[in-house]
Structures are given as C-alpha cells and as structure tokens.
Amino acid sequence: MPSDVVALGRLIVEALRQLTVLPSDPALRLAVYSAMALAALTLVVMLNVLVLAELAARRERRRAAFSVRWRPLLTAWSLNERAALPPLGRRRHEERLWLLLMWANLQRQVRGNAKEYLNAFFDHLAMDAYVTSLLNTRQSHRKLLALACLRHLGEERHWGDVAPLVSSSNPVESLAAADALVAMNPPRAMRFLVPFYIQRNDWAYLRFKSLCKQAGREAAGPALLAALKQSSHPRIVALIEWITPIEAAPWARQSLRKLPASAELTREQRDAVCASLRCLAELHSEQDRELIEKAFDHPFPQVRSEAVLALKHQSSRGDEKQFTRMLSDPSWWVRQAAADALVDLPTLETAHLEALLDSLQDRYGRDALRRAIAEKR
Contact at 8 Å (CB) between 370 and 342? Predict the structure, then answer.
C-alpha cells in the first residue's frame, strides 16, 4: 500500500514536470505561448473590469451624496431663497461638472423669475470662467454642456467665446452655439447665422426653423429678406414665413408659379412651396387664389394639405365644392384639413353639412366630416 502511494506521487510529479517542459515541435510551442498569452490577457481584462466597476460605483456614490447636498440648495435659490452655499470638495472639477448639469436641467424645467434666480446662483458661484474654459476642450459633451449653460444665461458678453464654434465641423456643436447666440442677441445672431445656414447643408431645415422661431419674426425677418434679395435658394424660401408676409409675397408667388406638376421635388423645394403657401395664407389676397388652387392637385400630400389650409384663410361660401372634392383625397391629413375648412365656412348651416355628409360616397371623407361636425358641436 505505501508503495502504491509513492508510485502515485512520482507519477504526479512526473506529469507536472512534463507540463513545464515546452514541446520540441515549433507549432506546438507556438500554441502553448498563444494559450499562455490568452490566459494572461483574459486575467488582465477581468482585473480591468473589476477595477473600473469599483471606480464607477464609488463615483456614483459620490455623485449621489453631492446631489443630496446641492439639489435642495438649487431648489431654494430657484424660489429666491438664497441659502448659504458650502464650498466644493476636493474634486472641484468633477463636482463643478455635476453642479452645471443639475443647474442646466433645472433651468429647462422652470419658467419666469425662477430662471433669473438660478442665473443669480450661477453668478454667485462665479462659474463663468470655468464654463468658457470648457469650450476649449476636445470633449464634445463638455462643450455642449457649456453652450447649454451660456444659452440659459443669455448674456452677450460671452459672444466672443461662442461665435467661433458656429464654424465647427460637428453640426451638433455648431447648432448648439447658434442656439446660444440667438439667446444672447436675436437680431445680431440672425444676421450672423443666415449666411452659415446657406452654406452648411448639414444644418437641418427644421432645426434652423426653430432658431428663427426662437428669435422671432422681427429679428429673423430682415436677415432672411437680405439673403432672399441675393439668392432665392429654396433653403431660404422655405423660411419666408419668418419674414413679414407683404415683403415675402413676391418670392412666395414666384415659388408657386415655378411649381412643377410632377412629383419631382426635392425636400428643400417641398419645404419652400409649403412655406410659400403659408405666407400667402396670411395675406388674405384674392389675387393669390389661383396659385393656391393650383396646388390642390399636386402629387405631394403635404403640398395639398397646405393649399387647403391656405385657402381656408380666405374662403367663402363659394369654396364649398373645392373643399368637398378634397374630402376624397387619398391623404388622411388633406381630408381632415378639408373637413375642418368646410365646417368653418361662413353661413354654412349644420343642416346643410348633415345633408352633405349623407351625400358623400367616400367613407373616409364621411369619417373626416363627421369628426369635424362633432367637434364643432
């Protein structure tokens, strides 16, 4: 029995010795080296994941503690209760970022005087220099945070720091900078931004349209009108609703006169045609009826819907046939617009609408008109 144990021990020792000896075959030796490298790499990755997870957990605990300490203070300042503020901790850079995020999020949620009170909180902590320093970093998320803060502040003294970012190759950064400039000085910003909009195809039409809405017609109109006089590009014509209608009307009429009967319209041209119809709708001019009615038969449903809405603004009892015809349109939006226009026609009695409802052959048109009549009641 002891001899069997000794033999087994010798066998195990011999096996371990064989495992520590590299094979003589180069291919097998390479396989052993590869397995050892893979095992080492796996171990390093596992250690890295564990270390990063622990660091992230500690950071989240610090951030939670920071929020518990500072959120009530921010809320108090938004109510004009100027509570005493504690100093920032050892990790000033990290905590300032967290504080800016909390401040910007709260700014989006409040209205009226509360925004001014939060701006006073910002000035009390003298965060201007730190925020403008974030504009020079290579990290986009920090630049966007800084631009959001400067937008909420809306102080023109930061113009020189923000304006260069409008030329950024990153469209998200450049539009965020444009947003901040509009908040600082709308007329000056629109004069500065409209030439960029013409040149930059990566600036979305709807995004720039929202900037025009933010600036207002009085600020956006002169800059857009000056651009129209230089070039009637569809990208500019699409924004003519932010120009005074009487001044924009010549370009709106020109755009509709050139409207092709086919469906071959680019997105920019379609936006320009719809904006032109909205512009003429505001004028309430009889001379534009022919141009508006011509758009009733356009292949694009968006154009037809805008045409119905435009005619509705200057409609009379005699337009009943036009709107009734559009109740058979394939587009849901066009049918709804036509039904609303019929119900709003002057001197059109409910009994007449009920008779019209019974005479309609298209069941989708009947549904649209039935809904409009019910809402009117």
Answer: no
Residue 4 has what pLDDT?
67
Q: What was the pLDDT predicted at 184?
A: 93
> In terms of domains, do 98 and 180 share one?
yes
Q: Within this chain, do residues 277 and 264 fall inside the same structural domain, yes or no?
A: yes
The domain tally of the chain equals: 3
Model pTM score: 0.77
263 vs 287: which has the higher pLDDT = 287
Cβ proximity of 350 and 342 under 8 Å: no
* Secondary-structure percent of the chain, ordered helix, strand, coil, rounded to 5: 80, 0, 20
Task: Tell me which DSSP letter residue 137 carries.
Answer: S
pLDDT category, 176, cuts 50, 70, 90?
very high
Domain assignment of residue 202, given as a range: 186-306
Domain identity same for 164 and 253:
no
C-alpha distances (whole Å) from 302 to each of 35, 274, 278 are: 64, 8, 12
Q: To which residue do tokens 């534009």 refer? A: 288
Domain-terminating residue out of 306, 336, 360:
306
| Cβ atoms 244, 271 nearer than 8 A | no
Averaged pLDDT, 4-22: 65
Domain shared by 255 and 164, yes or no: no
Residue 332: per-residue pLDDT: 94
Cβ atoms of 67 and 101 closer than 8 Å: no
Task: Please check whether residues 162 and 112 belong to one and the same domain.
Answer: yes
